[in-house]
């Protein structure tokens, strides 16, 4: 079974600074998908970014980018120019490329952006 | 913005009551899921469905049941609520492999 580990339960960053959230996973598969989700306080969980394992190029979405290291099974999220609205729980998730549609989530990292 | 709706948003109910948490999506997604989110915010899959009349239990054992009679509707029922059922319940849907999950706003259930 796949596992997803987020080793930072809580982090904080000054507004306008850059922060990196860590995620590692364990799988024996070669084809899979990785996601970062954001859950603001009392609000809906939304997708931040998605990465396909067979693509070497790191995904980017505006201020959000990933550092995908397939051999190391690492999938970190970098948030540039942090804004107060980035304050949220961030979840890393893994999906196998075959068989199951389910996502396996990490335990989350609580990010606080300080003004 | 994902078109997936959960009602009620908040529910406080007494022990022993039967409750149904509603989840509907207008995106035509085949796959639907129920997650229980504990106070530490960790997500646990409790039920999923890959289509009409298809339901399976997830990784976390749950006393709840689900049904999937229509593609757009995936309700979760607790026959007899207990304080241990107090939690946030998140419904989600997706189209398939590689596609992200779209989440509803969640139902925060408190059983007294």
Q: Explain this structure to me?
A:
Chain A has no helices and twelve strands. The N and C termini of chain A lie far apart (41 Å). The mean pLDDT of chain A is 94. Chain A has strands spanning 3-5, 10-14, 19-21, 24-26, 32-39, 46-52, 60-61, 64-69, 74-79, 88-96, 104-105, 109-114. Chain B is mainly beta. Chain B has no helices and eleven strands. Chain B has strands spanning 4-7, 10-13, 19-25, 31-37, 43-51, 54-57, 65-66, 76-78, 87-94, 102-103, 107-111. In chain B, the strands form two sheets. In chain B, strands 2, 4, 5, 6, 9, 10 and 11 form a seven-stranded mixed β-sheet that branches. In chain B, strands 1-3-8-7 form a four-stranded antiparallel β-sheet, with no helix packed on it. In chain B, 37% of the residues are buried.
Low-confidence stretches of chain A: none
User: Could you give the order of the helices and strands of chain A?
Assistant: EEEEEEEEEEEE
Elements of chain B, N to C (H/E): EEEEEEEEEEE
Q: Which quaternary structure do these chains form? A: heterodimer
Overall average residue pLDDT of chain A: 94
The structural class of chain B is: mainly beta
Secondary structure tally: strands of chain B: 11
What is the helix fraction of residues of chain A, given as a range? under 10%
Strand content of chain B: over 45%
- The CA-CA distance between the termini of chain A, in Å, is 41 Å
Largest sheet of chain A: 6 strands, mixed
Q: How many beta strands in the DSSP annotation of chain A?
A: 12
Per DSSP, the total helix count of chain A is 0
Beta strand % of chain A: over 45%
């Amino acid at each position: 079974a796949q596992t997803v580990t987020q080793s930072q339960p809580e982090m904080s960053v000054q507004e306008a600074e850059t922060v990196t959230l860590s995620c590692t996973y364990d799988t024996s598969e070669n084809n899979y998908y990785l996601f970062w989700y954001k859950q603001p306080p009392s609000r809906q969980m939304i997708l931040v970014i998605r990465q396909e394992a067979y693509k070497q190029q790191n995904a980017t979405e505006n201020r959000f980018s990933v550092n995908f290291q397939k051999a190391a099974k690492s999938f970190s999220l970098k948030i540039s120019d942090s804004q107060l609205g980035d304050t949220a729980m961030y979840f890393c998730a893994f999906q196998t490329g075959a068989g199951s549609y389910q996502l396996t989530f990490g335990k989350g990292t609580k990010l606080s952006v300080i003004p | 913005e994902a078109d997936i709706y959960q009602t009620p948003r908040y529910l406080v109910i007494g022990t022993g009551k039967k409750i149904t948490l509603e989840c509907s999506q207008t995106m035509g997604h085949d796959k639907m899921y129920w997650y229980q989110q504990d106070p530490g915010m960790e997500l646990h899959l409790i039920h999923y469905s890959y289509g009409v009349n298809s339901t399976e239990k997830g990784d976390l054992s749950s006393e709840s049941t689900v049904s999937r009679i229509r593609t757009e509707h995936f309700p979760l029922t607790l026959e007899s609520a207990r304080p241990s059922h107090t939690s946030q319940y998140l419904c989600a849907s997706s189209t398939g492999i590689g596609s992200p999950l779209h989440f509803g706003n969640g139902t925060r259930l408190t059983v007294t």
